[in-house]
Specification:
By secondary structure, the chain is of the alpha+beta class. The protein has 3 domains: about 40 residues, no CATH class; about 150 residues, Beta Polymerase, domain 2 (2-Layer Sandwich); about 35 residues, no CATH class. About 30% of the residues lie in helices and about 20% in strands. It has 8 helices and 11 strands. The strands form 3 sheets. Strands 3-9-8-4-5-7-6 form a 7-stranded mixed sheet. A two-stranded antiparallel sheet has the order 1-2. A hairpin with a 2-residue loop joins strand 6 and strand 7. The protein is globular and about 55 Å long. This is Poly A polymerase head domain-containing protein.
Length: about 240
């Protein structure tokens, strides 16, 4: 049960526990929004089967797709999907494939199967390095469903394997948790999914903060790194 609060988006009073499910409750704890505002933000502005400015899913770098497909095959017993999402697709959309530093792979997982899943991945020849602390994805990482982070290299490319709980059951759910609109894009093995914020940032040459997932200092540092990569873009929010 929640204490009575006011939605920061519409100003309406939130009484008791009016939320549809646990995902909505977790989003309320992070952003404070009521159910109606969550529905307005999260269930609209999604574009599935999207073509990224002429880029088709078949145009994704083969090395990325091969690793994604292999992981999904290895983890078939404990996961529904492996998503490529975030900054690598941002750079690809902007024609900066050569500037991609690493590729984020997001995996839905039962937290109780995390360790055995790691062992399966290693047994099939993917050399995971020592796990990283989930705090590298911000203090709200646990609230967002991150339960573990590993990384590995193949063919000179660094891959970040981000293990997620039930908050990663669809690409649209996943990308709405990203902090900057310019990064809100995902590939699920068949298609791209992007948000209005992603399209608007690239069309308007902006870097818009759409939610807080970290301390102000670290978010400002991330924004400055993106601005250095896209010097013609303007910071918003």
């Amino acid at each position: 049960m929640f204490l009575d609060t006011t939605c920061p988006t519409c100003g309406g009073l939130i009484v008791g526990d009016p939320f549809r499910d646990n995902l909505s409750r977790k989003e309320h704890r992070i952003q404070g929004m009521c159910q109606r505002c969550q529905d307005s933000v999260f269930e609209s502005g999604i574009h599935k089967n999207y073509i990224l400015e002429g880029l088709k899913p078949t145009d994704l770098p083969g090395e990325w797709v091969e690793v994604r497909n292999r992981l999904e095959h290895i983890l078939w017993f404990c996961t529904h999907k492996v998503f490529i999402a975030g900054g690598c697709l941002r750079d690809l959309r902007a024609g900066q494939k050569d500037q991609v530093r690493d590729v984020d792979l997001w995996v839905q997982i039962d937290p109780n199967r995390l360790q055995i899943s790691r062992e399966y991945v290693k047994a099939y020849g993917i050399p995971l390095n020592e796990p990283s602390s989930i705090t590298c994805y911000g203090p709200s990482a646990e609230d967002r469903g991150v339960v573990g982070i590993d990384y590995f290299e193949e063919n000179g490319i660094e891959f970040n394997l981000i293990w997620m709980g039930k908050l990663c059951d669809s690409p649209e759910t996943l990308i709405h948790g990203f902090d900057f609109g310019i990064n809100q894009a995902a590939y699920d093995g068949d298609n791209f999914t992007v948000t209005d914020s992603f399209l608007e940032d690239h069309a308007n040459q902006t870097i818009t903060r759409v939610r807080r997932t970290d301390t102000e200092k670290r978010m400002a540092e991330r924004a400055e790194r993106m601005k250095a990569k896209f010097p013609g873009y303007r910071l918003v929010g």
